[in-house]
Write a structure and sequence with these properties.
The protein is an all-alpha fold. Helices cover about 75% and strands about 0% of the residues. The protein has one domain. The protein has a two-stranded antiparallel ribbon. The radius of gyration is 26 Å and the shape is globular. It is found in: Membrane. InterPro entries: Sugar_P_trans_dom, TPT_transporter. Pfam families: TPT.
Length: about 375
């Protein structure tokens, strides 16, 4: 975003407007104050396409980072939760790590975060609620289901985002965007149809996570664009508001004592557990930041589409990394449909963000 510079120039007389030399010297071509202002405005217009390009690349970079980190984190979480099945304790540690990371960055001068105000608490309480319930259900689902089945069910989120925006605000989208989203989702469903093994608790948790995530992403987009929170503030505030609730839940259910006993056993018996746990917690904090950043730089729908494309790779890799699921020709056909829909959506969004250069051209010669 560019800001206008306001210049104050004294004019001795209305009949004799002050003139300044175009190159700062004497005996050269002179222009009036109005002409100089016009030249400056034209120069500002020249910078608009550059600002548009920077905004476009920021949108692309945030989406790619969110997709890559989310892909890796899914496998790390699966590995940790298989040996340490305590999702609430895991989420509590993740919130604590996020708070520490943001505060360290703030002390180091790498970022600036405004103090948490009461009005911010009121605005963010719905975001915090839907975030934590979404993650809790997602952790239950990823533990109960195989990676491919989990991703297949989570790919219903983009449709829920479109439906949520329509029901809440009456927002509609273009036919091209709607078709690309439906192609992505239908392709993902096709990819998993031949590999689904019914698990009621896992299915229920995954579907609840989809509904909660779509609501959560819409609220994050609204919080950032309408209430002025940046991605770091959302990350810190979410952790600060979530941690007390999560601590209370783990204490009330008694999970904290079982999780401590289990983690002691894992540390003694499994040399890889601690590196996996630390990596998963760090990536969880980074993923939260990238999720906020991607949603603010793009939209809730773009974030869910990136998650859908990411889950395609996660599904294919899940067939080989954790085993137990056999791929079929129908699955590969679904992946193809998903890829076509994702590429189509990317092209449409790229065209929407392209600056209209014909409207930004200015004449430098008179």
């Amino acid at each position: 975003m560019s800001s206008e510079e306001h210049h104050s120039v004294e004019v001795p007389s209305p009949d004799f407007p002050e003139t300044v030399s175009e190159d700062g010297g004497f005996g050269k071509k002179s222009v009036g104050v109005d002409e100089k202002t016009q030249l400056m405005e034209e120069g500002s217009d020249l910078n608009k396409p550059l600002a548009k390009d920077a905004e476009l690349w920021m949108s692309i970079a945030s989406a790619c980072a969110y997709g890559l980190i989310g892909l890796l984190m899914g496998f790390f979480n699966k590995a940790v939760l298989e040996d340490w099945p305590y999702p609430n304790s895991f989420l509590t540690l993740q919130m604590a790590v996020s708070i520490v990371i943001v505060n360290v960055m703030q002390v180091s001068g790498l970022t600036t975060v405004q103090p948490l105000q009461l009005n911010a608490v009121k605005n963010l309480l719905p975001v915090v609620f839907f975030y934590n319930t979404n993650v809790a259900f997602a952790l239950v689902a990823v533990r109960a289901l195989s990676i491919p089945v989990y991703h297949v069910l989570k790919r219903l989120t983009p449709v829920m985002v479109l439906a949520g925006k329509f029901l809440i605000w009456g927002n509609t989208t273009s036919i091209e965007i709607a078709l690309s989203v439906l192609t992505v989702v239908s392709g993902c469903l096709m990819a998993g149809l031949g590999d689904l093994s019914f698990d009621f608790s896992g299915y229920s948790a995954a579907l609840m996570s989809c509904a909660l995530q779509s609501t959560y992403l819409i609220l994050v987009e609204r919080s950032g664009t309408e209430k002025g929170f940046n991605s770091m503030e959302l990350l810190l505030y979410n952790g600060m508001l979530s941690l007390p609730v999560l601590l209370a839940i783990t204490l009330a259910t008694g999970e904290v004592w079982d999780s401590v006993e289990s983690i002691q056993y894992q540390l003694a018996e499994n040399a890889l557990f601690l590196p996996l746990l630390i990596s998963s917690l760090l990536m969880g904090s980074l993923l939260n930041y990238c999720l906020f950043l991607c949603t603010l730089c793009n939209s809730a729908l773009t974030t869910t589409i990136v998650g859908t494309l990411r889950s395609v790779f996660g599904t294919v890799a899940g067939f080989f990394v954790f085993g137990g699921v056999k791929g079929t020709a129908f699955m590969f056909l679904g992946v193809t449909f998903n890829t076509i829909g994702g590429v189509g959506y990317t092209i449409i969004k790229y065209r929407e963000k392209q600056p209209n250069t014909s409207q930004n051209r200015v004449r430098l010669e008179k």
